[in-house]
Amino acid sequence: MGTQKWRRRPGQVVFTHEARCRDCYRCLRACPVKAIRVVEGQAYVDADRCIACGTCIRECPQHAKAFRVDLEEAMRLMAGPGPKAASVAPSFAALLGPENQNRLPGALRRLGFDFVGETASGAHEVARRTGELFRAAPSGQIICTACPAVVQYIEQYAPDLVDRLAPVVSPMIAHARILRARLGPETKVVFFGPCVTKKAEAGRPELRADVDCVLTFSEMVQWLAQEGITLPDCGESPFDESPPGDSRYFPLPGGLARTAGLATDLLDEQIIAVDGMEDLEQALDRLRNSDEPVLLEPLFCAQGCVNGAGMPGRGNLFARRRGVLDYAARHPGAAAKAPAPPDLGTSHRRAPADGGAFPDAEINAVLERTGKGAAEDQLNCGACGYGSCRDQAAAVLRGMATPEMCIPHMRRLAEQRGDRIIETTPNGVVILDGDLNVLAMNPAFRRMFQCGDGLLGKRVSHLMDAEPFERVTASGEPFEETVRHGSYRRVCRQMIYTMPEERQTVGIFVDITRAVASEEQLETLRAETGRKARELLDHQVRMAQEMARFLGASTAQSEELVRNMLLLAEARREQAPGE
Ligand code: SF4
Ligand code: SF4
């Protein structure tokens, strides 16, 4: 299967920077819904399964997972017609110190916003309506949440509980509707918050008309820097509205119930606030298995929105939480007004991500293929990123994973392949322990040195000079040399190295006996040829002298001729041995 199909879709909220991905699968291990699809070793975000929670963005050590940056869209809106309203999530107090919190409204006005409000105003309305629902049906079970990741999780991965989601929009959507009702329908609303999922929420077909652009606090910081706006240069000023009651607490676990004026006592059995995926799953199971009345208030991120993936930096979570609590305490909410006019109702859909369980036979076939047919071979180690071997097999059937992701299976294969190579190589391989006793030998080594299992456990000196092994073991430095093993009539090029962690020494012997013998024969042939060439030249010199004398040439001419011939002979003699 090609990878093109799984690359980033237009508008996809969370995606992979392929060049940065090192295929470590940490994102897969962290992804609460296993929305990472591994194709040809590359970890892609499957847009159909992803709930945009941002966990993988926080987890990836290579920063290969990223969210869509919408700064250009925000700037385009600012340049267009209509009043511009900013809706700022209360977690801004976790991002900025007290000295800058009251300067943020001014900074956003310098970006061009006509109205700078707090999303907490929307939370107040959402909480009010949720409280009414709960009071009207005190024996029911209601899931009320400000968190779109939870909503999407329930729709796709716990669709049996969709009916229990309160049919009320999120604080972000509520605030956008309140702002438009107040400032006019042509108002452009930009939301600023810590949350990546809200980008996905704003893109839902039924909510697309509410928020025009969602920016994370990371993008907000980038935008201000781009425009050269620094908070210390902005004067202090209040937001353009004052949210009622305790609504500034809503990004923290239990905050929405508190905003609704419901008890959030940790011991209260009817109101359960949970944060983080593990607690969410447990709480949903509790709803499934009990008909006790309960109001469940979940947030997907541990410690709530102060841990959202769109928060810049990695500050201490509890310090961030403190920031929100302190700001809320220093800015007590206004008195509640009559309910705001807009309709804050919504409906939720069942959209199961998976088409149901696979038959056992299909799962077992995948397990067989990866050497895990027997229950004892199913380690359920989680190294592949899945909770169990059966989950991984199901992911293989779904096309989300490949059998090669099973690390114990691949290690077994590699060991088998490694063993096979060692068994079949024509080179001798011997493995010694720390005392240079023989631990293992391959067939080639046994043939070369005419030994068998009787040598196992004995010192290598029983077979050959142990000095090179001792030297390598002592120094830890690999060593390579050509050695003539006279007793075995072999000449070997031998390489010796240590494996310190295993406290073992390995010897590899390449038999070069034939090559050396051929070289020696060649040497003999060269020497013989040189000798014959010299004899021939001497003979020629003598013949020349004879001829000169016979022809009666002058002594001088004769000597000249002889000298030249001698020089010629010398030159040829030097040339002859190497020819
Ligand atoms: S954003 Fe969340 S759901 Fe999507 S791939 Fe990352 S961890 Fe999984
Ligand atoms: S807990 Fe808050 S920041 Fe995290 S996904 Fe939910 S709404 Fe977004």
Fraction in beta strands? 5-15%
CATH topology name of the largest domain: Rossmann fold
CATH architecture of the largest domain: 3-Layer(aba) Sandwich
Count of extended strands? 16
Notes on the protein architecture:
- The protein has 21 helices and 16 strands.
- The longest helix has 39 residues, at 513-551.
- It has 579 residues and is of the alpha/beta class.
- 41% of the residues lie in helices and 14% in strands.
- Helix 15 (360-369) packs across helix 16 (389-398) and helix 20 packs antiparallel against helix 21 (555-575).
- It is elongated and about 140 Å long.
- It has helices at 26-30, 55-59, 71-79, 92-95, 98-101, 104-111, 120-136, 148-157, 171-183, 197-202, 217-226, 255-259, 277-288, 317-330, 360-369, 389-398, 407-424, 443-448, 467-475, 513-551, 555-575; strands spanning 14-16, 36-39, 42-45, 65-67, 84-88, 115-118, 141-143, 188-193, 213-216, 271-275, 294-299, 428-432, 438-441, 479-485, 490-499, 504-511.
- The strands form 5 sheets. It has a 5-stranded antiparallel β-sheet, sandwiched between helices. A 4-stranded parallel β-sheet has the order 6-5-8-9, sandwiched between helices.
- It has 4 domains: 71-330, Rossmann fold, CATH 3.40.50.1780; 357-424, no CATH class; 427-511, Beta-Lactamase (2-Layer Sandwich); 526-578.
- Residues 14, 31, 33, 35-36, 45, 50-56 line the site of one iron/sulfur cluster.
